[in-house]
Amino acid sequence: MDKHLYQTGLIGNCAYLAHVHKNTNIEWLCWPRFDSSFMFGGLLDRQKGGEFSILPQGEYTSYQYYLENTNILCTEIECESGKYRVTDFAPRFYQYERYFKPLMLVRKVEVLSGSPRICVTCKPVRCYGKEQFEALRGSSHVEYVGEDEKIRLTTNVPINYVFDHQEFTLNETKYLVLTYGKHLEAPLVSTMESFLRETIMYWRTWIKRTSIAQFHQEVVIRSALVLKIHQFEDTGAVIAASTTSLPEFPGSGRNWDYRYCWMRDTYYILTALNHIGHFSEMENYFNYITDISFNELNRYQPLYGVTGKKQLIEKELELDGYLGNKPVRIGNQAYEHIQNDIYGQVLISVLPLYTDHRFIFSERKDSARVVEYLLKKIEFTIDEKDAGIWEFRNFANIHCYTNLFQWAGCMAAAKMARTIGNADLEQRALALRDRAAAHIESCYNEERQVYTHAAGSDHLDASTLQLIMMGYLDPASEKARKHLEALEKELKTPKGLFYRYLHADDFGKPKATFLVCAFWYVEALACVGRIEEAQEEFSKLLQYSNHLMLFSEDVDEETGSQWGNFPQAYSHVGLMNAAYRIAMKLDKPSFA
């Protein structure tokens, strides 16, 4: 099998995300929200997915890159008649005391050499490709109308060329501006040039205000930019990925909708944001988690919609699927699962409200009630079997990882209780901590000197690397060293990749490695003092990006192919946290 890499880049403005293929086509764009139907979905179906491309006739070559330290994407096309560049961006900048982030896709097309002949094709679709928009010709725009939805393409390309998909000679800079809802009424050229300048300035200023060490700084910057635009700023939710149904491995049937916010990611996301010093994103995410917390009487769901929606009913669509991989799913049945690590995740996530002095502690109202409320959620579930971090659909166990986060959550609760001077609450938290620790120890295999994935199980799981990173095991201890060695021996590949696990699940044995686990492994190496190995393994993992330093969820160990939803925020967060851990261990002067 040839090496498979995703051929798209991602743009966004914290209101929407879009994938731009190296062939200039908008392969994926969901409006008006991250989890809405696609307007362009060629990623999943060439016929029903619509198209928005700017292409020459005949053969051409393509080169794609980001403007440095931005989420603005350039695609250069060279053909027989000349060369041109398409600059794609989602406007974002500060204006009128708030961030301007419209549902607007801007495409600037400029000549680089010769007189290229090009054709603009714009065919959006509705309801996941079930319906077409009616195209209405205007004087300088095409309006696409469908029931209660209306989008408009405003352009200085002769409108008949666009409407009739007619080839023309590109002899001056052209602009194509696609908008949802409110249409562009301002002058086209000067307004778009202003938007481009302001958006470039916004992203570069955002990066200048980011704390990133010198260790592989360029790739960490790109990961930070990726993470930023996966936050739905209106509510603060951070989604796992912008796509659905990109297979974990060809023919596996493991095709899931990742356009939602997983509670299990909370700790890692907040850690990454804290490391790079972006407080407002953390605070916005806190608000999202807090709103969900006080809207749940007993249980958290493993995941929620970007607005906190609970019912994410899973459906299959009549689409061809990515490279023919079916089924294509929207919604995610995992919202019904029992996944008990998330209570600890939430407790850890609210800890900064009590210990981080950037928050004003006097603003915390009913502090004891808040801690008790969250602690009760662990008390309610601490002895219960669950689906675990990997969301097994037909298996329930006492999972080591679940109880690790309950242990850590209780530690956080005890710390918060001490901060507010509530000794009774502190004692309750510590007692629950000890119960969680007992469950963790029930997963320890004395003979093999390793923690298995669940009580009574012989199977190993990469999630137990977190025992070392989260301090349950002393990184300097023999127990931590032996545990890491056992995981390496069974789950690590020769090229530095890591399987989540190798035992059969609901869909058989996994065939692809899970990239974030490899970054966890790098972190664990750094924790136990194997710092040179950590650096080497980190560098190895960089080869598994696409042409834009974007990482997928899964990687085939044999070919290095990218699979799974893309780009995967979880993978980029793992990269950021691993790089930070190594940088802190190195701690050397910049000139060294």
TrEMBL record:
The record's listing under InterPro entries reads: 6-hairpin_glycosidase_sf (IPR008928), 6hp_glycosidase-like_sf (IPR012341), GH15-like (IPR011613), Trehalase-like_N (IPR045582)
Tell me which Pfam families the record gives: Glyco_hydro_15, TREH_N
Task: Kindly indicate where the leader peptide sits in this chain.
Answer: none
Q: Which SUPFAM superfamilies match?
A: Six-hairpin glycosidases (SSF48208)
Q: Which domain of life is it from?
A: Bacteria
Recorded GO molecular functions are: hydrolase activity, hydrolyzing O-glycosyl compounds
| Ranges in a coiled coil | none
**Residue intervals of the GH15-like domain:** 216-580
Q: Domain (Trehalase-like N-terminal): give its ranges.
A: 9-154
**Which BP terms in the Gene Ontology apply to this protein?**
carbohydrate metabolic process
TM segments?
none
* Entry-linked PANTHER family: GLUCAN 1,4-ALPHA-GLUCOSIDASE, TREHALASE
- What this protein is called in its record is Glucoamylase
**Species of provenance:** Filimonas zeae
